[in-house]
């Protein structure tokens, strides 16, 4: 008989599990394996011959896919039994791309739950909102098919599934990855290698925490061919995960980290905020240690004010973004005080010493104002940017998993806050005081520990929940309504005439076919597929059938679905049928003359099939939904026709046409179905209406406009692959708690909200962020601490229910100067960006722009009036922490979402994209990064792959130059009129700019300049976790004008120049002062 293990204690067999093949959580492996980690991007370096580097070939028809061992710990978490979904991961020595931080049960921890621990629920209230039960219903009969597949009509009813709720679903397991990339034919070694049109090889781009060094590529192949490779996969073993608090924290630094190599010589940042501070009195001068940026006057400079007006501004002295410095080590707390975090866009390695990493939660001000009056005087926003599953740096310590057994984690009995480092133990450890509501609780007997002379528990350093800002608790059955559900992936493809003719259908089918190998292996993975034009076509994929059967649903007004068991089948059972079907779909419909699309009806039909399980629904749409449920009209054309009536109602085109799709989206979210839409279009699709579905279900919209069958399939494939393989959780519920005196005002992001305190997320991934605005409901005490805690209850991709608890505690202040010193530029701007995007559909555009500008001016005015009063009134004084705030505000007012000269769909997509945008990507979206390409081979960048960025001003663009600009989503390559033919030959393999094809596909040629440019593009793609759709822009044609529209420091039709804007800001501040 096996000896019992006390609850909460490390399980004896945890550390002996070797893990699944190719899975390695810690990046400690062989440095030579770094080149093998490029499995998410079609890279374009000349590939060295590496044995064992080919992709796994698809199984021949009639043969089952290769099976894998059933031992699959979740990112280093010791398993207590076989994993429900085992699958291979990346090769040894590497973290899975974008994987959540590895977690491990510390061997040295004390037992959390002795055998006499009470196991009842902590309160009578359910921890989160309950879910409604699910009705079942009869299914009507489909009619016969006239297509190439035999028609088949289901009979009977669809069995009603169990009620939905907080149930585990294991989706999105780590991708199976070979130890390298597929090999090119021998004839390709000396020629160009495609960096774009890479649909059949296994070389994809690295996302997140990945390593660019030594990447190899696959040759360009027709994307319609299935992946193949001459070499078998290898399956390196995995050593046991690191334990807490065992020997050295974190993983060893490796070259080529996404944030740069951590430097051992870098000292931690200075403690807290420098210098003793005195409250500024009205009319007093600046404090001795107050940092500020002083912009001097310059006579006769462009943008200068008229005589008698505000002082002129010297364009050579205005603040601009600098290049990122070498990585720093950031300790979240020192000497019992929170450290202000480094910029979100910089390279840093976090040491969690009590507060959470700023990657997971970041506050707009790193000291909390004691009163609402002080906050309103500052003119700044108080909000949290929460990204609970964000990717960590490879050198950071993994998040620890703590199992309290059947009793569950220790919580406050009043406010239900989770145990954290800031709860204070008293009475020799027998009681603890909640840092959120102040209630004193009895310490559970099995959790008791005596206090040391310093008043802290003696075991505080041995328990992650008492010394770390981020921890994961194993959820008990109290947090579940049902057992873990299978992973369901349903693909819905547009086969209307337009989609077939533009190649969108073929691109979607090929992308799906190639990501099948990235779906979790094993019996818990289910797939389904349907196509739609003016009717809906399901496919019976059961292995017993000789070929897939088409099941047609012609009624798009009153939608029904065939039997779920016929159309959602185990992947292992239907892989051959599915691959055959995906090959056949483009030719089956190639003669289609159906111009209509029943998008809304197709989504509803797919939902009915998925209703009992939940899952991921991925829709590929090419034209406007014109028939059936949720049919739409071309409002954009109508809006143009009625423009003479005035632009007051123009913003209504950015609102959904009606409530039909919103109602459907709420029902989808209720049953835990997450929808992602891939819009492969060349026309208007009413993005404002259809994007409601992904926004409500925790999904995402991907837009490829205008779709090109030549250049867009590689991005479509990479986007789909990253969507499936990135770290993600399912059936999530999130709540943020605050200390007394502060409360949550509003949540903004992609979610469904049914009760005031919680948000429901059918899916959440490492790229999604939620903004939480805060407000005062009482005064805070100066010098006290104010804490914030985000609790995310979710299901891992392995079907385990977890609670990720992220805690941040900041000091309170009565001093305005402290607020400006503690301001966080990235999150302040992200807050302004998200609020502007949220208001664009409901307000006139000039009002939104004015509100953003006034928000900037009010903050700078408060600083000028109360913190910098001794300086001359003729100078523009900016707080050091916010010196770039005016530049980014100007860039926001000129961005796609706030311009009237663009397409309505582009603006709607921008609004939806911003909704869940992470803080590090907020500034690049409006103030992109621009680098010069023509001199990459002669520049000495001190070993850096990327050169320093260039200011976004046309005066920095030469007619003889080539420039690359990226905003995290798109890349623009600008070619001047007089570029040297030798540079053109090296970069494009043509002697003149006129010969460069407009539908540009990035290639690598056999020269240093081409290699360095490709390396730079791949590095940017890796940093941004996006494949970047590259467009060619030439001076003198409309594409050149598109590029110049991003020069936000120039005067344009949409706003003043940067210097002129600073003059305006200065004038407004002086008017307020007077």
TrEMBL record:
Annotated Gelsolin-like domain ranges read 944-1012
Record region (Disordered): 1-187, 296-349
**Ranges for the Sec23/Sec24 helical domain?**
824-923
Q: Which domain of life does this protein belong to?
A: Eukaryota
InterPro entries, per the entry: ADF-H/Gelsolin-like_dom_sf, Beta-sandwich_Sec23_24, Gelsolin-like_dom, Gelsolin-like_dom_sf, Sec23/24_helical_dom, Sec23/24_helical_dom_sf, Sec23/24_trunk_dom, SEC23_SEC24_subfamily
User: Is Protein transport included in the keywords of this UniProt record?
Assistant: yes
Query: Per UniProt, what is one Pfam family of this protein?
Result: Sec23_helical
Biased composition regions of type Polar residues, renumbered to the chain: 25-43, 322-338
Give residue ranges for domain Sec23/Sec24 beta-sandwich. 729-813
Where is this chain compositionally biased, Pro residues type?
A: 1-10, 45-62
Enumerate the spans annotated as Sec23/Sec24 trunk domain. Answer: 484-724
| Compositionally biased intervals (Low complexity) | 144-160, 167-187, 296-311
Question: Which keywords appear in this protein's UniProt record, sorted alphabetically?
Answer: Protein transport, Transport
List the CDD domains hit by this protein, alphabetically: Sec24-like (cd01479)
Every Zinc finger Sec23/Sec24-type domain range:
409-447
* Similarity comment: Belongs to the SEC23/SEC24 family. SEC24 subfamily.
Recorded protein name is Protein transport protein Sec24-like At4g32640
Please tell me the species this chain comes from: Camelina sativa (False flax)
* High-level lineage: Eukaryota, Viridiplantae, Streptophyta, Embryophyta, Tracheophyta
Q: Which gene encodes it?
A: LOC104721565
């Amino acid at each position: 008989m096996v000896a019992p293990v006390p609850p909460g204690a490390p399980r004896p067999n945890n550390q002996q599990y070797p893990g699944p093949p190719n899975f390695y959580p810690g990046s400690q492996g062989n440095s030579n394996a770094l080149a093998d980690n490029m499995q998410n991007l079609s890279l374009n370096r000349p590939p060295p011959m590496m044995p064992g580097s080919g992709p796994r070939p698809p199984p021949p028809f009639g043969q089952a896919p290769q099976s894998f061992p059933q031992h699959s710990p979740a990112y280093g978490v010791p398993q207590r039994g076989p994993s429900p979904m085992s699958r291979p991961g990346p090769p040894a020595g590497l973290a899975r791309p974008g994987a959540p931080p590895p977690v491990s049960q510390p061997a040295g921890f004390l037992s959390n739950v002795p055998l006499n621990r009470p196991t009842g629920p902590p309160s009578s209230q359910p921890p989160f909102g309950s879910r409604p039960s699910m009705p079942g219903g009869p299914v009507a009969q489909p009619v016969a098919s006239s297509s190439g597949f035999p028609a088949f009509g289901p009979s009977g009813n669809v069995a009603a599934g169990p009620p939905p709720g907080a149930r585990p679903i294991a989706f999105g397991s780590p991708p199976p990855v070979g130890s390298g990339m597929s090999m090119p034919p021998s004839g390709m070694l000396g020629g160009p290698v495609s960096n774009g049109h890479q649909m059949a090889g296994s070389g994809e781009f690295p996302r997140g925490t990945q390593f660019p060094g030594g990447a190899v590529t696959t040759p360009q192949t027709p994307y319609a061919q299935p992946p193949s490779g001459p070499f078998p996969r290898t399956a390196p073993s995995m050593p046991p995960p690191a334990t807490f608090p065992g020997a050295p924290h974190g993983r060893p630094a490796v070259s080529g980290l996404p944030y740069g190599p951590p430097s051992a010589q870098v000292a931690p940042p200075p403690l807290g905020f420098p210098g003793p501070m005195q409250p500024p009195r009205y009319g007093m001068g600046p404090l001795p240690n107050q940092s500020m940026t002083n912009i001097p006057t310059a006579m006769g400079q462009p943008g200068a004010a008229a005589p008698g007006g505000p002082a002129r501004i010297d364009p050579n002295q205005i603040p601009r973004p600098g290049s990122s410095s070498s990585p720093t080590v950031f300790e979240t707390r020192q000497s019992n005080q929170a450290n202000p975090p480094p910029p979100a866009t910089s390279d840093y390695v976090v040491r969690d010493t009590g507060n959470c990493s700023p990657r997971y939660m970041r506050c707009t001000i790193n000291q909390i104002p004691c009163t609402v009056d002080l906050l309103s005087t500052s003119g700044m926003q108080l909000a949290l940017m929460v990204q609970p599953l964000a990717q960590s740096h490879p050198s950071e310590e993994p998040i620890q998993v703590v199992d309290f057994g059947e009793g569950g984690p220790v919580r406050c009995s009043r406010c239900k806050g989770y145990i954290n480092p800031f709860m204070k133990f008293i009475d020799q450890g027998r009681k603890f005081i909640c840092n959120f509501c102040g209630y004193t609780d009895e310490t559970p007997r099995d959790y008791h520990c005596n206090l040391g002379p310093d008043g802290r528990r003696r075991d505080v350093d041995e328990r992650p929940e008492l010394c770390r800002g981020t921890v994961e608790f194993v959820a008990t059955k109290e947090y579940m309504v049902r057992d873990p559900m299978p992973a369901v992936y349903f693909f819905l493809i547009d086969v209307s005439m337009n989609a077939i003719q533009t190649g969108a259908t073929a691109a979607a089918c090929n992308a799906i076919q190639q990501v099948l190998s990235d779906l979790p292996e094993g019996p818990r993975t289910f797939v389904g597929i349907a196509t739609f034009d003016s009717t809906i076509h399901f496919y019976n994929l059961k292995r017993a059938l000789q070929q897939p059967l088409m099941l047609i649903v012609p009624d798009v007004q009153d939608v029904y679905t065939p039997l779920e068991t016929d159309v959602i089948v185990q992947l292992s059972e239907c892989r051959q049928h599915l691959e055959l079907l995906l090959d056949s779909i483009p030719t089956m419909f190639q003669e289609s003359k159906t111009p209509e699309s029943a998008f809304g009806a197709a989504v509803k039909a797919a939902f009915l099939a998925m209703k009992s399980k939940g899952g991921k629904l991925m829709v590929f749409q090419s034209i406007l939904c014109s028939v059936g449920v949720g049919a739409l009209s071309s409002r954009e054309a109508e809006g143009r026709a009625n423009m003479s009536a005035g632009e007051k109602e123009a913003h209504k085109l950015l609102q959904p046409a009606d409530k039909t799709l919103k109602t459907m989206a709420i029902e989808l979210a209720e049953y835990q179905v997450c929808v992602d839409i891939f819009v492969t279009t060349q026309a208007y699709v009413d993005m404002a209406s259809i994007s409601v579905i992904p926004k409500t279900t925790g999904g995402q919209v991907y837009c490829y406009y205008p779709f090109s069958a030549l250049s867009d399939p590689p991005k479509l494939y990479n986007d789909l692959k990253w969507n499936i393989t990135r770290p993600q959780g399912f059936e999530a519920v999130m709540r943020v708690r605050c200390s007394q005196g502060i409360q949550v005002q509003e949540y903004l992001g992609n979610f469904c909200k049914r009760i005031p305190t919680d948000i429901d997320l059918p899916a959440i991934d490492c790229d999604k962020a939620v903004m939480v605005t805060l407000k005062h409901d009482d005064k805070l005490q100066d010098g006290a601490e104010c804490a914030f805690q985000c609790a995310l209850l979710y299901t891992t991709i392995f079907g385990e229910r977890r609670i990720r608890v992220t805690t941040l505690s900041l000091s309170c202040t009565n001093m305005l100067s402290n607020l400006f010193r503690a301001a966080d530029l990235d999150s302040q701007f992200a807050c302004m960006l998200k609020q502007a995007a949220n208001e664009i559909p409901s307000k006139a555009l000039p009002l939104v722009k004015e509100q953003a500008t006034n928000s900037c001016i009010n903050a700078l005015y408060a600083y000028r009036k109360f913190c910098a009063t001794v300086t001359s009134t003729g100078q523009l004084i900016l707080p050091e922490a916010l010196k770039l705030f005016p530049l980014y505000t100007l860039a926001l007012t000129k961005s796609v979402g706030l311009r009237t000269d663009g397409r309505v769909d582009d603006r709607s997509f921008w609004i939806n994209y911003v909704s869940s945008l992470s803080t590090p990507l907020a500034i690049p979206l409006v103030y992109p990064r621009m680098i010069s390409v023509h001199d990459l081979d002669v520049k000495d960048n001190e070993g850096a792959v990327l050169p320093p960025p260039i200011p976004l001003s046309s005066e920095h663009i030469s007619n003889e130059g080539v420039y690359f600009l990226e905003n995290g989503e798109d890349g623009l390559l600008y070619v001047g009129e007089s570029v040297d033919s030798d540079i053109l030959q090296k970069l494009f393999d043509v002697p003149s700019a006129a010969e460069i094809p407009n539908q540009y596909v990035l290639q690598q040629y056999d020269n240093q300049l081409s290699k360095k440019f490709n390396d730079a593009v791949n590095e940017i793609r890796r940093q941004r976790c996006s494949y970047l759709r590259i467009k060619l822009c030439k001076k003198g044609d409309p594409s050149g004008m598109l590029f110049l529209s991003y020069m936000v420091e120039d005067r344009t039709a949409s706003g003043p120049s940067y210097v002129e804007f600073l003059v305006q800001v200065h004038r407004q501040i002086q008017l307020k002062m007077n």
